[in-house]
Amino acid sequence: MAHKIKFCIFANPLPDSEGNTTYQVRHQPDGTMDTKAFLDHVKLHESFNTTAMSSALSILKDEIIEQLKNNKRFRIDGIGTFQMKVGLKNSIDEDGTPTKAHFTDPEKITARNVEVTGVSFTPDKSLIKMLKSNTSTINCNGRGMVGRSKQYERQEVVNALNAYLAEHHFITRRTFQTLLHLSSYAAQKWLDLLINEEFPKYTAQKEGNTIIYRRFGKE
Question: CA-CA distances (angstroms) from residue 170 to 101, 205, 207, 212?
Fold first, then answer.
């Protein structure tokens, strides 16, 4: 039986050069499978020991970190390749406000200005091929229907935002959009609402061409 890949249609926030509204499609996930759910699934469908699988996952994580720290890409055949991402550090002033790095002289960039910013993942071609095989697609909202961003209560948004900001100094609209699976319009609407409340807990600051959002005080 073919798997049904769910998608929704969303309007792009800006019109094209002729003023027409254009549309895009995005995958519509049905939740997230975490490690526990994965191990439970394996236990039901496979014969090997899930304790050993859990240990293998931990070893794999440690090995990926070790090899990336050794400045190597880490490739898992049939899955894909992990690679370290580095960038310039933001400086933090005495008020805790991040300032985007800005250099006009390459000689002034030293090791102290550089940090690990993340990990990129490039899927193996065979993985993409397998995902495409024996699948069809289905519009979650029906043909011709344009999807809307998920509807959240304010506290749900605040909880997600605070959890992210507890580990990061700031968030951008694009990251916030991805975090809550929102359209760019809905993400900006929520951020504008939060920073313009009567007693706001969040503030916006422009850094270069990017607006960053920070939390002050506690919700």
Answer: 14, 10, 11, 6
